[in-house]
TrEMBL record, chain A:
InterPro entries: AAA+_ATPase (IPR003593), ABC_carbohydrate_import_ATPase (IPR050107), ABC_transporter-like_ATP-bd (IPR003439), ABC_transporter-like_CS (IPR017871), P-loop_NTPase (IPR027417). Transmembrane segments: none annotated. One of its GO terms (molecular function) is ATP hydrolysis activity. This is Putative atp-binding abc transporter protein. Keywords: ATP-binding, Cell membrane, Membrane, Nucleotide-binding, Repeat, Sugar transport, Translocase, Transport. It is found in: Cell membrane. CDD domains: ABC_Carb_Monos_I, ABC_Carb_Monos_II. The lineage of its organism: Bacteria, Pseudomonadati, Pseudomonadota, Alphaproteobacteria, Rhodobacterales. PANTHER family: CARBOHYDRATE TRANSPORT ATP-BINDING PROTEIN MG119-RELATED (PTHR43790), D-ALLOSE IMPORT ATP-BINDING PROTEIN ALSA-RELATED (PTHR43790:SF3). It is a peripheral membrane protein. GO terms for cellular component: plasma membrane.
From TrEMBL, chain B:
It is found in: Cell membrane. It is a multi-pass membrane protein. It comes from Oceanicola granulosus (strain ATCC BAA-861 / DSM 15982 / KCTC 12143 / HTCC2516). One of its GO terms (cellular component) is plasma membrane. It comes from the Bacteria. PANTHER family: ABC TRANSPORTER PERMEASE PROTEIN YPHD-RELATED-RELATED (PTHR32196), AUTOINDUCER 2 IMPORT SYSTEM PERMEASE PROTEIN LSRD (PTHR32196:SF71). Signal peptide: none annotated. The keyword Transmembrane helix applies. The chain crosses the membrane at residues 21-43, 63-89, 101-124, 130-151, 171-192, 224-246, 252-273, 280-297, 303-323. This is Autoinducer 2 import system permease protein LsrD. One of its GO terms (molecular function) is transmembrane transporter activity. InterPro entries: ABC_transp_permease. The complex is composed of two ATP-binding proteins (LsrA), two transmembrane proteins (LsrC and LsrD) and a solute-binding protein (LsrB).
UniProtKB/TrEMBL annotation, chain C:
The chain crosses the membrane at residues 42-58, 89-111, 118-138, 158-180, 187-203, 209-228, 249-277, 289-309. The keyword Transmembrane applies. Keywords: Cell membrane, Membrane, Transmembrane, Transmembrane helix. GO terms for molecular function: transmembrane transporter activity. The keyword Nucleotide-binding does not apply. It is found in: Cell membrane. This is Putative permease abc transporter protein. Pfam families: BPD_transp_2 (PF02653). It is a multi-pass membrane protein. GO terms for cellular component: plasma membrane. It comes from Oceanicola granulosus (strain ATCC BAA-861 / DSM 15982 / KCTC 12143 / HTCC2516). Its main location: membrane. InterPro entries: ABC_transp_permease.
Length: 510, 329, 325
């Protein structure tokens, strides 16, 4: 019945929005290469792909935040382009973004109508009408919120509803939903599905981005799969099953050949017991051995980075203990962690990793200044020598060692951050999404280097959302979901399907 | 793939000479030379050793504070209370004089007051996590306000004769004690900022405090020390200025915070933190001193000079940006 | 209920407590006509603090307001001395325009050249102040050089209140309308609260900041005329250092220096708090020299208090924690 309806709809209608040959390149990375996307009125198209596949980039192009380098966008068969966010909105394309971008100090109604509030006498904002309209919108999506309430008093789930209401406050023909259920509870998700159904019935085209297979199969009519910035498949949901989608998503990429590793883990280095945080993660226990690569897999927001930052002393756990070589260690600051031999290559390179503005060699020696200096005075020659030792090994590409790190490509910045930590001669290195947003060549170099480090006896923790990377590199994988350990997998049990199932909670009544 | 095939990365892209040739400091230096030449043509009294020596008093005390302020601004913070610290330290010394304190005690009181004020600012910023600009606007009123409470419209006088050496003494010929102090601190701050681990940490924190913290730097402690240093230098400036004037009024050093910040920014320190140099601040001190002195010789009143200082402050930041905009169009 | 927990309510409570303390020993201070006098005396501070509020909301700061006030005031006084026949409304229009122009200069430097606001306004503050000296040659414009109409306006009484007070009340009302009911007013909050998201919402951050500076300048210009005509004197140093008192009123009134948060009510209360202290000191026989230290202490306490109240929460991942909080 449903299938027939889809086919009927597809036959009847032409796509409202068509993207053709869209290409977008960032310095050092090709985010999208000649991808296409069709959105049909009254249908939900699911866009699936791993992190870094280019999903967010296409959303930003659709909504006028980014300009494509090549390709065309057609609305009702007419070529259009969106130089600003306002243009996309005016054309009837509206988005509910991954990060809820809203304004704490404004009211619910103002958040919904910022930029296009109804005006009354003297051009003043007609507050009464705005609140009435807001209330109507909120009721339409089943949210019982007081439109006059300041946004700061709302929890995350309700903020999401406001974001949805904002997206619907304009006469939208295309609604983009970028992981709309990521922060919602089961009941709220059900309400969202109802909303999607209603939008479909109203004839709007919906682009639905999600990592959760159960919901894709539940609400989507069509699918499009991106992998590494390329379109790898599309069609009707009725013609595809779960394993086929996973296969398309993960693929067997010719570019990604992982280093051969003979894993021979040595004695235990690190033992974490019952690590807990009031709001971010709960009861995490694991061990790590010399020469081992331990993968941490999970969806974005599963609490992996938060756990790693607590292990590195950035935040403090509420409970739990860390043992290094069987001796308990209290890690209160990053300085403590570095002292103990635990180092952390953060996911957010620009904010937490590289000190942009400082030259390469000063970045590398920052935590090792005690080694390169004498009585607190810098010795540049020592700094250059230390830097060279590690940048050569990592095959860094740069014009000179005194070049500003900000001028390097993402992959080379990452190498600088890794070099910085290796120079401290750590015992445990935590790599948080080590190859996110870097080019294929640098990726391979980072992978090879990780294998080398493990072979030398370093204990490696790798947080990654990329399934091939997790599978290709890890000896053992811990899957996290919603702040807790969902599974610990190794050997035969370690497959793309098991990873995705545990991370998304498929087969647990959902 | 072999080592031989891979080009080795050089240590430095440009030689030190090349970098010096395109530096802000050189441009500033040329400006200073130009002003010097213009002044010597404009007034016959300019090229006189004693007159030039007198001119240095225009900037030495402010520059002492500017050195510490440069470090603080590079680290991403600011202290607008420095002039008020001068007032409070001077008032404390004046009160000590009334109790019969001698010169060593006065110096101690001046330094201790400066340190205490710096510690107060530093604690509010680093312990409570408050924005330094608001905190120091507050303490700017508070510190000077305490001076007003103590002194009202009165003044402290009667500083011992030996105390006046700090503001009026000469070490050798026309070389004043203040000028020697200026040179010594310039050298010290140069070494600290550009040649020590501590200085490197300041740059790292100013460019990216989060990554600095993630690299194991004790960010809050370092910032606290910088507030402490700024307070200490303000205390030293208070000693020199009080000794030079021979009296304390609560309005002492009024408005100096702006001149100190101007000196630092003119010296090429990024007001948003992360970059700057002590040589730049030193040259900027000379530029401001020469402008003030030259215009003074031409009988231009002080307030009009402040127009030049204000234009200089905006101009030095605006011109490079205008240049970039013009080039990219 | 929500109001009782708000910063404004706490500040209002503090003001009432302050008044009660003063009234306990000096009941005359809380007599209606004296309170009206205090309000009148605080009016210039209120006017400037409103403009500063708009600027701070957009994550900027305007340190040039007092210099703007003084320069506009001097120009008004000199024009009046030179052409006593010129009607006062023309002078007021001129004050508004000149103030707006000086504010716009600040705004343009911030918007187009992206120079940090503190640098821009530190610079223009000294420049504007210096220009007063240049145009006046350091001379005072005294009472006898000003026309009677020029001096009379702020002091004229209307329904028992001086015109100065009425102007402050009208401006507060108009400003509240602007802040709460116009797209520009709401944009101040959006741009300061979340500049990144403001771009997504189609707002131009720089242009919004420009308008905030222009608004601040316009109010400073208006206050310039009122100040000079009320005190019947204009010289280089009038309102020297007043910019700090203005920032203090905003900070005490709960305007977050990080931008995007605060209310008109808060700012007016913050200004009144400072005004009451200033006027009460002589009454309670405390030297007026205490005023500076008290406002400094009040700034620090207020900013520490506000920071505690608005400490941001981290991301909540655990479902149990989300429902618990």
């Amino acid at each position: 019945m449903n299938m027939q309806a889809v086919e009927a709809a597809t036959r009847e209608s032409a796509p409202v929005l068509t993207l053709e040959g869209i290409t977008k390149t960032f310095p050092g990375v090709r985010a999208l290469s000649e991808v296409g996307l069709d959105l049909y009125p009254g249908q939900v198209t699911a866009l699936v792909g791993e992190n870094g596949a280019g999903k967010s980039t296409i959303v930003k192009i659709l909504t006028g935040i980014y300009q494509p380098d090549g390709g065309r966008i057609r609305l009702d068969g007419q070529d259009v382009h969106f130089p600003t966010a306002q243009h996309a909105t005016t054309a009837g394309i509206t988005a509910i973004h991954q990060e809820t971008v809203l304004f704490d100090e404004l009211s619910v109604a103002e958040n919904i109508f910022l930029g296009h509030a109804p005006r009354g006498r003297f051009g003043l904002i007609d507050t009464a009408r705005m609140q009435r309209d807001a209330r109507a919108l909120l009721e339409r999506i089943g949210a019982r919120l007081d439109p006059a309430l300041p946004l700061k008093e709302l929890g995350i789930a309700n903020r999401h509803l406001v974001a949805i209401a904002r997206a619907l406050s304009v006469e939208a023909r295309v609604v983009v939903m970028d992981e709309p259920t990521a922060a919602l509870s089961q009941k709220e998700i059900e309400e969202l599905y109802e909303l999607v159904e209603r939008l479909k019935a109203e004839g709007r085209a919906i682009l639905f981005i999600s990592h959760k297979f159960d919901e894709i199969f539940r609400i989507a009519d069509r699918y499009t799969v991106f992998r590494d910035g390329e379109l790898v498949g599309h069609g009707a949901m009725a013609d595809v099953d779960e394993s086929e989608l996973v296969r398309l998503m993960v693929g067997r990429s010719v570019d990604q050949i992982f280093p051969q590793r003979v894993s021979a883990p040595g004695p235990e280095v690190l033992r974490v017991e019952g690590y807990s945080h009031p709001t971010e993660f709960d009861d995490i226990s694991f061990t790590l051995r010399r020469g081992e690569i331990l993968g941490f897999y999970g969806l974005v927001g599963a609490g992996r980075s938060e756990l790693m930052q607590a292990l590195f002393g950035v935040t403090r756990p509420s409970r739990g203990a860390v043992h290094l070589d069987d001796a308990p260690h209290a890690i209160r600051t990053p300085a403590d962690a570095i002292e103990a031999g635990i180092v952390y290559v953060p996911e957010d390179r620009g904010l937490q990793g590289a000190v942009r503005g400082l030259p390469i060699f000063q970045n590398v020696t920052l935590p090792s200044l005690r080694e390169t200096s004498r009585r607190g005075f810098l010795r540049m020659a020592e700094e250059f020598a230390l830097t060279r030792r590690y940048t050569d090994r990592l095959e860094l590409r740069a014009a000179a060692l005194d070049q500003d790190v900000a001028e390097l490509s993402g992959g080379n910045q990452q190498k600088v951050v890794i070099a910085k930590w290796l120079a401290t001669k750590p015992r445990v290195i935590i790599l948080d999404e080590p190859t996110k947003g870097i080019d294929i060549g640098s990726k391979a170099a980072v992978h090879a280097f990780m294998a080398e480090l493990a072979a030398e006896g370093l204990a490696v923790i790798m947080v990654s959302s990329e399934i091939p990377e997790i599978l290709g590199m890890s000896d053992r994988v811990i899957v996290m979901r919603e702040g807790r350990m969902a599974a610990e997998l190794e050997g035969e049990a370690l497959t793309p399907e098991t990873l995705v199932r545990h991370a998304a909670g498929i087969g647990e009544g959902g | 793939m072999s080592l031989a095939e891979r080009a080795t990365i050089p240590d430095r892209l440009n030689s030190r000479l090349q970098r010096a040739a395109t530096s802000w400091e050189l441009l500033l230096f040329l400006v200073a030379v130009a002003i010097f030449i213009a002044n010597s043509f404009a007034s016959p009294y300019f090229l006189n050793a004693w007159n030039l020596s007198d001119a240095t008093f225009n900037f030495t005390e402010k520059a002492l504070i500017a050195f510490a302020m440069a470090l603080l601004i590079i680290s991403g913070e600011i202290d607008l209370s420095v002039a008020s610290i001068i007032a409070l330290a001077s008032t404390a010394m004046g009160a000590a004089v009334q109790l019969g304190a001698g010169t060593p005690v006065l110096v101690f009181v001046g330094l201790a007051t400066g340190l205490a004020c710096g510690a107060f600012n530093g604690a509010l910023v680093t312990r409570l996590g408050l924005p330094s600009i608001v905190v120091t606007i507050g303490t700017m009123s508070l510190f000077r306000g305490i001076s007003y409470i103590v002194l009202g419209d009165g003044a402290y006088r009667g500083y011992p004769a030996s105390f006046s050496y700090f503001g009026q003494g000469y070490v050798f010929w026309v070389v004043s004690f203040e000028l020697v102090l200026f040179a010594l601190f310039a050298l010290t701050y140069y070494v600290v900022l550009h040649r020590t681990n501590f200085g490197r940490a300041i740059f790292a924190i100013g460019n990216n405090p989060t990554a600095a913290l993630f690299s194991g730097l004790r960010v809050r402690r370092i910032k606290f020390v910088l507030f402490l240093l700024t307070g200490l230098m303000s205390g030293i400036a208070a000693i020199c200025l009080t000794a030079r004037l021979g009296s304390t009024r609560p309005s002492i050093g009024f408005g100096w915070e702006l001149e100190v910040v101007t000196m630092v920014v003119l010296g090429g320190v990024n007001i948003l933190g992360g970059s700057g140099s002590i040589p730049g601040v030193v040259i900027a001190a000379f530029v401001m001193g020469l402008v003030t002195f030259g215009l003074g010789l031409l009988n231009v009143p002080g307030i009009v000079m402040s127009i030049f200082i204000g234009l200089l402050l905006i101009g030095v930041i605006a011109l490079p940006r205008l240049w970039t905009i013009a080039r990219t169009r | 209920m929500a109001f009782l927990k708000s910063r404004e309510a706490i500040l209002a409570g503090a003001i009432l407590l302050l008044l009660a303390l003063i009234a306990w020993r000096f009941p005359g201070f809380v007599a209606p006509d004296n309170l009206a006098r205090v309000f009148n005396d605080t009016s210039p501070l209120i006017l400037l603090a409103l403009g500063q509020m708009a600027v701070i909301l957009t994550r900027c700061i305007d340190l040039s307001v007092a210099a703007n006030l003084a320069l506009t005031g001097m120009v008004c006084a000199m024009v009046n001395a030179a052409a006593p026949g010129l009607p006062v409304p023309v002078i007021i229009a001129m004050a508004l325009a000149l103030g707006a122009l000086m504010g716009a200069v600040n705004g343009l430097l911030v918007w187009t050249l992206a120079i940090p606001p503190i640098v821009v306004t530190l610079g223009t503050m000294t420049i504007y102040r210096g220009i007063i000296f240049v145009i006046s040659d350091g001379q005072w414009v005294n009472s006898h050089e000003m026309s009677d109409a020029f001096k009379a306006l702020p002091r004229a009484e209307l329904l028992g209140l001086p015109v100065l007070s009425w102007i402050a009340l009208v401006v507060v009302a108009l400003f509240a309308l602007l802040i709460v009911r116009t797209p520009l007013g709401r944009a101040f909050y959006a741009v300061g609260g979340n500049p990144g998201a403001a771009v997504y919402a189609g707002l131009n951050v720089g242009r919004t900041q420009f308008w905030a500076f222009t608004l601040s300048g316009t109010l400073a210009g208006l206050t310039g005329y009122l100040w000079v005509s009320r005190y019947a004197v204009a010289y280089v140093d009038i309102a020297s250092g007043f910019e700090l008192e203005v920032v203090a009123a905003c900070v005490i009134g709960g305007i977050s220096i990080a931008g995007g948060a605060g209310t008109v009510t808060g700012v007016v209360l913050g200004a009144l708090f400072l005004g009451i202290i200033k006027n009460a000191l002589p009454v309670v026989n405390v030297s007026p020299f205490y005023q500076l230290a008290i406002s400094g202490g009040a700034i620090i306490i207020a900013v520490a208090f506000n920071a505690r109240a608005s400490r941001s929460r981290g991301r909540v991942i655990l479902k149990s924690a989300e429902h618990a909080s």
